[in-house]
Each structure stands twice: as C-alpha cells, then as structure tokens.
C-alpha cells in the first residue's frame, strides 16, 4: 500500500517535471526559433557598438618638408540643454572659458533640446578647464582643427577649410579629395556601461588618412617675397601687390605672394578681396613688360636683327588715327635699344612689320589669353582678342601691352620661357602627393607646354634684357656681382567709364631672371596704383632686387 | 554509467565551463586594457601633432623676423613676474546703470554738464 502511494507521488512529480520541461522547451522554441529575428536584433542593439573612425586630413609641406598646414587636436563643446538645471550659473561659468558672451550662451542653454553646440574646435587647454567644472550636461567631442603655423605666409596658395575641415580655397579646395581621406568604422561589443570591448571586435573598415601634399614653394623664399612686397605696397600707398618666383627650368613655383594678405587661421575676419589669390584671378594690362613678346616674335620670324635701326620719330608718331608718344623722345635706335629704352614708337614699328596675325599667334604661344593649368582654383585666362576683333589702334597698343590683359602668372611664365631657352613650362605648385608613410601616391613631373622660340632667339632676348638692367629702364634691379635680365612695365589703367586711359592710375611691373647666364629663378613683381611714383623701374625693380639678392644668398650662388 | 565515471564527466564539464568563463572575463579585462592603451596612444599622437605644430609655428620665418626686429630694438620678452594679464570684465547691464556707469557729480555740475539722457546720447 505504502509502496503504491509512493509510486503515485513519484509519478505525479515526474509528470509535473515533464510538463514543466515541456513548457520550458516550448518557451525556448518560441524565443529561439519563432521570435529569433526581433530578439536577436534587440540583443545586438544592446551589445553591439559601431564606432566611426575619423580620417585625419593630410598635411601640407613646403619643399623642405616644413609644415604649412596641419590638423591639430581640438574639442567641440555641446550641451544637453534639456537636462541642464542651473542654466544661468553654467552660462556665467562657461563665458570666460570659451571667450563668448554670457547672454549668447544663456540663449543657447535655454533651448529645450538634447543637443546644442556651444563652441566648435576649441583648444585642448580650454577643454581641460571645462572638464574641471564637472557639469555633466556640458560635453566635449574630440575632433581636429585645421591650423596654419605660418599664419599669413602662403595663405593665398594654401587656402583654408571650413569648420568641418572641408577645403574652401586654394590647395585645400583643389586637392580636397586627396587631403580629406576616407573615414572608417568598427563594429564591436560594449559592456553594461556602454564602454567599447575591443577584444570582441567583429567587423571593421579601416579609415584611410588623407594624403600629404609636398609643395614646390619654399617657405624662406616666400617670406622674402612677402616681406619685400608688403614694404613696397605700404611705401607706395598702392592698392595691392604681387610677387611670383618661378624656377624657369621646370616651372616650379617657389613663391607666390599677395599683399594685402590674410590669416587662414581666422579667414572670416578678413574681406573676400584680401583672401583672393590675385596672381591668378586678377588680370591687368602689362604695359611695356609685354614688349618681350613683340621683340621675341620679330626676332624669331627673322624680321629684325639686334643691330637693325628704327627711327623713333623724336617722341611722337601718328598711327591708326592717334598719336603715340615715348616717355623720352628718341631719334634713331637699334632694335636692342628700342627694348632697352622701352620705346613705344620703336616697338610699334617692329609690330607693324610683324603683322597682327603673327603677333597674336606668338602672344598665345607665350601663354597669354589661355589658362596655364596651374593646380589652383579660380584661374582666369586674361584677354587676348582675335585679330579680327582688333580696332585700327590695336596694332599700336597691343605690342606695348595695352588692350591686352594677363595674370601675373602668365607674365612670369613668359619671362621664364625666355630664361628657359624658349621652352614654356607648365607652372607647378605641388611637387608630389605622398601617404602617411611617405610612399609616393602621385607625382607632378615638369611638363614642357611648347617650344615658343628657338634657343638662338632666346639667347638674343637674354642679351637685350641684360642691357635693360645694365643701362636701360631696369637699372634699379641690378645686383652687384651678378648678371640680371629683366624688363620694366608701366601701364595706364583704363578709366572705369570706358572713355580711354587714366593719366593718374597705373600698374607698375617688372619681370626678370637671375643669374642671366644660367637662370635659377625668374620673377614678376606687380604693384597696382602706386603713388607718387608709378614707373615699374622705380617701384617694382627694387622689390625684384631685394628678393633676388636674398634668393641668391639663400641658394649660395657664387658671384 | 558508473557513479565515479558520471562524477568525473561532471567535473570535466564544470572545468571547461569555468575555463570558458575565465576566458571571457580575461577578454573583457584585455578589452579595457586595449581601450586604455588606445586612449594613451591617441593622446600621445595628439600631443605629437600639437608639438610639431608648435615647432613649425615657432620657427616660421615671419615670427623669427618679428623676434629679430624686437631684439634689435633692445626689447626682451617679459619674465614671469613682469607679465600682468588684464582680465576684460564685461559690465553687467542693470536697470540702474543703463546709459553708462553712474558718476558722482558735484553740486554745481548741473550748470556745466548736460542731463544724464543727453550724456547717454553722446556716448551712443
């Protein structure tokens, strides 16, 4: 009896356990099989963590691997304004640290939002001070800030970035795709507090840091050019000034200076006109500097010899219904003297022999009226009208650099062509693009655009241009112990109402190269509306001399 | 199955289970170490970038030229106790001091000075 009752009890317990197990298995089947998708998704959301990996923007170096633009650590400050209790006190505490107006901060904190920016890209020291306040609702986000250690130096070439590190101007814009890199992400697990568990990393896409740019520009030459230019623009109370230094042998731009300039660390505190790279965006009438084109074309076509004589009409010559004047009256001058003394009448007579078609063709070959394809955004082509569009007076204006407009880069390209034995080189700002390990990604080798004149013509032009500096209008550019070649230019500016040329507003320029026998660099100096003097030989030639002296010393060129 | 064999199996299973748990705990510990090392590496890299930036900034030709100019004028950078930083204090606008801070006036000032309203207009 006892045994039977015991057996029944045992059976009941066993049955209970079987039923319980069956329920449990059923529940497990329901969770694991039927509801697998939503529950597994929920679990993944709780455990998995996807971390975005920011790509570091590439650094820009000068030719000596000196940093010109780099990304440095910074923090962005935001508030969980909705949860913040003591808004007024917080605003009062943060205002002096962030250097912002207390009222502005309070206005931001009063917004009933979970995320409000307070300040972007602050210095790590500022971030430390904020951390010390210990306000939980004020949070910091690590990021990087684009900074330019040289400040104003090279600002027009390098450009600048916006707050999200996207290039907006200059090389930062032109090479943005190379510089910005590609962000990545990694998928891993997180603990109960939300911290990353790196050992459980499942998937990852590695971020590719931006490539670095190595420029052809030299920081020291740039400084010499910038310094001499700013002094000259201030001295002559001019609107603006430009200096470009180029290596004529390979088209490498060694310096590209503008004045007025701006600090790319604070671009918004400067006018747009200050931020414009005028060397490629502004065109002007070059004046007598353009005579090198007329002279080279005539020599190349064999129409003149250096010793041929031209009568310069004692300073007044009527052509195309207008009277042309020379600054100083001249009688008979050799072709060489026409250029050395910068005679307008002599040059026009040479151009009349040459004809407008040939002159236009050579001007185009020297790079006028065409973009140089320099690796900078915003380059303009200038103005070089087709011969069919020329007026009756054009043949008396274009040979001496009026009715034609060019950029300073085109002008330095033309003089470099003479210095480089008649070969026009493509101007180059960037030498190469490398990755973070220094491996070459892309290189920019020197590129010959075309041969414009023969070596013989270029040699003759060099001899004439040496005389310009030794005994002509460019004496102020001469450097003791060195042979310098160059040409001055003084162009009247067109009146804004289109009623001819102004007698008081000029663009002064000087183009040249040194050492003349074996040129290492060529240079253009342009100064807009200098006063009280306005001649290229007086205003720009001394700038050329100052910069050239510095470069010759820097490059250790022997006398 | 003999009880001894059964207990041995249980021990083996338990041993493997504990090994698995220990392994997971170690993984979590290593994860924290990796996280700390990553933070440290990132901090050091940031510091390196900042220092390189400072070197580039301090050796920039324009800065050196300014420094040279200052030294040529016989000026020197201030020493620690020679530098006084003035903190800019933004005056708090209250109802009483709108129109500029209140100044003490002499008894006869009304003869020579314009009214407070006119004074505020002048400042504006």
Features:
heterodimer, A: 559 residues, alpha+beta, 7-stranded mixed beta sheet, 20 helices, 36% helix, B: 124 residues, mainly alpha, rod-shaped
Structure description:
The complex is a heterodimer of chains A (559) and B (124). Chain A has 559 residues and is α+β, with helices and mostly antiparallel strands. Helix content of chain A is 36%, strand content 24%. In chain A, 45% of the residues are buried. Chain B has helices at 3-58, 61-72, 109-112, 116-123. Chains A and B meet through strand 3, strand 7 and helix 9 of A and helix 1 and helix 2 of B.
What does this entry show, briefly?
The complex is a heterodimer of chains A (559) and B (124). Helix content of chain A is 36%, strand content 24%.
Please compute the radius of gyration of chain A using only Cα atoms: 35 Å
> What fraction strand of chain B?
under 5%
Number of helical segments with 4 or more residues of chain B: 4
Please bin the fraction of helical residues of chain B: 55-70%
Low-confidence stretches of chain B: 92-102, 112-124
Percent in helix of chain A: 25-40%
What is the radius of gyration of chain B? 37 Å
Task: State the distance separating the first and last CA atoms of chain A.
Answer: 130 Å
Which oligomeric form is depicted? heterodimer
Q: Unreliable stretches of chain A, pLDDT < 50, 5 or more residues?
A: none
Number of strands of chain B: 0
Mean pLDDT of chain B: 75
Largest sheet of chain B: none
> How many strands, what sense, and barrel or not for the largest sheet of chain A?
7 strands, mixed
Strand content of chain A: 15-25%
Largest interface, by Cβ-Cβ below 8 angstroms: which chains and how many residues each? Answer: A-B, 30 and 24 residues
Mean pLDDT of chain A: 92
Topology:
The complex is a heterodimer of chains A (about 550) and B (about 120).
Chain A lengths: L1 H33 L1 H12 E6 L6 E2 L5 E13 L7 H12 L3 H8 L6 E7 L1 H10 L4 E10 L7 H4 L11 H5 L1 H5 L3 E7 L5 E2 L5 E3 L6 E4 L3 H17 L4 E8 L4 E8 L12 H4 L2 H4 L9 H10 L8 E3 L4 E4 L2 E4 L6 E3 H6 L3 H11 L1 H10 L28 H4 L10 H12 L3 E3 L4 E5 L5 E4 L4 E4 L3 H17 L13 E10 L6 E14 L6 E8 L7 H4 L1 H14 L5
Parallel strand pairs in A: 2-9
Antiparallel strand pairs in A: 1-6, 2-3, 3-4, 3-5, 6-7, 6-8, 9-17, 10-11, 10-22, 12-15, 13-14, 16-19, 17-18, 20-21, 21-22
Helix pairs in contact in A: 3-4, 3-5, 9-20, 12-14, 12-18
Chain B lengths: L2 H56 L2 H12 L36 H4 L3 H8 L1
